[in-house]
Amino acid sequence: MEKLNFAILGAGAIAKSMAKAVNGIREELTPYAVASQSSVKAAEALCREYGFQTAYDSYEKLLADPQVDLVYVATVTGLHYEHAKRCLEHGKHVLCEKSFTLNAREAEELIALAQSRGLFLGEAMWTRFEPWVEPARRLVAEGAIGEVLGVEAAFCMSEPADKGSRLLDPAIGGGALLDLGVYPLTFASLFLGKDIQDIKTTGKLENGVDVDDYIELHFAGGARAELWAGLKGARPPHAEVKGSRGRLLVEGFWFAQSFTVENEAGSRKYDYPFEVNGYEYEVRSALKAIAAGKRYSDEMPWDETLRIMRLMDSLRAKWGLVYPHEKGTKKLNVGILFGGKSAEHEVSLQSAKNVYDAINRDAYNPILIGIDKSGRWILNDAERFLLNADDPVRIRLNDAGEPVALVPESGGALSRLASSTGPAGEAGGGLAGLSLDLVFPILHGPFGEDGTVQGLLKLADVPFVGSGVLGSAVGMDKDVMKRLLREGGIPIGKFIALWSHEPVPPFAEAARTLGCPMFVKPANMGSSVGVAKIHNEAEYTARIPAAFEYDRKIILEEFIEGREIECAVLGNGGGLAGEPIASIPGEVIPRREFYSYEAKYTDENGAALEIPAKLDAATVKRVQDLALKTFKILNCEGLGRVDCFLKKDGAVLINEINTMPGFTRISMYSKLWEASGIPYPELIDRLIGLAFQRYEAERRLKTSYAG
After folding, report:
1. 400 and 379 Cβ atoms separated by less than 8 Å
2. Are 295 and 40 a contacting pair, CB within 8 Å?
3. Nearest-angstrom CA–CA distance, 183 and 189
4. Is residue 56 within 8 Å of 33, Cβ to Cβ?
5. C-alpha distances in Å from residue 165, one per residue of 29, 38, 82, 168, 169
6. In the structure, what pLDDT confidence band is assigned to residue 688 with cuts at 50, 70 and 90?
7. What span, in angstroms and rounded, lies between the C-alpha atoms of 612 and 675?
8. pLDDT tens digit sequence for 127-152
């Protein structure tokens, strides 16, 4: 492979450090160009000092140069998204300085763009590439300091930032977190992993930026990270990994060339000097990935970039810190699709109200589309879309809005139905300017959670939240779901599936197979609608026809005596960046005979939710692992809540998955993520990001065969 031509966007201090590193490994690539829009003299000076060939006085000129292969974005954080995007749009590979972007949404969009263009995109978090990292992690993993108890790391400026410092300017992403705090967060991630169970934090804000941050992260297994970042010299920089039999110290941990292990054997220092200045390792990693046809570096994969960005988003949300740039971005039209031709219609209304109230208005413009029980889509407004909104028993959809529809290949553009006339006076005309960028189908049960709406949205060519057609369909049909789980080696209870045209087995026969009591359920329904617990032949005779009123297929299940444990899953998988993750488990403690519809939605005393569930660490991991396996086996995407039983002997049996679980603020799914460190508004944000990620990946698939 020929040497790549390396270019630098920006000519400040960080650009100078990178230019020095590139010059030091020029046998591996060509120092080609530097661009500065504020000082072409600075660009020319870098070229002279470090052997680059061309200086440009604008970024566009550099990006228009067909000789440029790989661009290092060395501008301020607030401009990373814009500049990296322009590089990708011009067909250039990109290595972008940390923090990667202002927020996770910008990062997700850049990653989707890089995927669609087949280009390398990496975050230049140089700490992760330095040669000391892997030897230090290996020693810790091998037990050099015993059991890992936690991490302590601080990166605070020794002197307060100058009044005119870029770090104090909110317009360009100033503050301690994105510039300094990202390093302690990265250090904690290197040694404690990603399974964060709880977050405690304080951030002192002054003039629109954070100046003094404290972050406490609690991980599965009990390890804890205490982290600090500050612009006012509050604490000397340091980092250590604490163990039960010693510690690992890393001085200047963000650009370390050594570390020290202290344990019962004494103190030993390990040296790993830089070849040039430390920046050369991230460049080499990018070159290696590009040569292998990969889109990201192994040392800093996209899912790690996204995870740290989302964690920083969560911290800022807790502090109430929003950058001006975030407030001024173009809002996306998010269609909230709710109601539905389903017995779970009222549950969906409650979920929609909660999402509408919590969605980030700085980023999204929510468009309310209610589906009535006859299947009509009704465009409504916030003032009147629900009747009796605060009463879960009497809540109703207001059907006084305008009937609308999505049609194939509309790209999200809403159309009037033929029976409706608009201002233009043409029946069936489009709604001028009203197009959905994404749909959040908060629909529970048939005609919404079973793949029907998902298929329509795919035909309309609009991104949507949640599982696709297959995952939705098999997740909804309890018979098919259980068969697939059984085939995949997932432990489940005994069951019998019955179609309405088939003879119902005698009670004695069903009892011999399943035991008694047993449950009867419509195969394609949720929220415990049509579910009954059967204790005797009389109930068997009465309850089976009642279940058939909701579905043509029903299932009979064995009664499993055990605790009802639920675990939330979030992510896409399927080769996309960021593997699905599982929340801490919670427990449902019914106060009725079982967790009925009334106990879930209308009787405030019907059940207690215990979050987190009182489980030992081994059981928590077993539940989470089974939840993730269930999610993947059933081809689910976006979100899902996996329900299981924990028997007295410690066995865990999967009951079912909900691919669009109840989504109110007090629903189990959202409460589990809240307890796991993802607040409700951020959860909505993440789901929207996952929807765009999948859409972009599917959009790249070929639809023609060229031979």
Report:
1. no
2. no
3. 10
4. yes
5. 34, 17, 22, 6, 7
6. confident
7. 7
8. 999 999 999 999 999 999 999 999 99
